[in-house]
Fold:
Amino acid sequence: MRGRCFLHIAQQITNASSGAKEHRMPKKGLYANIHAKRKRIAAGSGEKMRKVGSKGAPTAKAFKKSAKTAKKK
Structure:
């Protein structure tokens, strides 16, 4: 276990000293997730959309935030 931790720390130090930045893909947005779930449901996954106000469902605040970054058609 110790050797594994050491390798991880050594890799972080190497990356930091070389100036390499981690390139992460941006997260998919709220609407992309909704459309993906609708597609899965249409394909027969057995999933259901969450009801408005239920735990884990998008809030009005989330929809307003995503509308700010929505692509114009």
About this structure: The longest helix spans residues 2-18. The chain has a mean pLDDT of 79. Helices lie at 2-18, 30-42, 60-68.
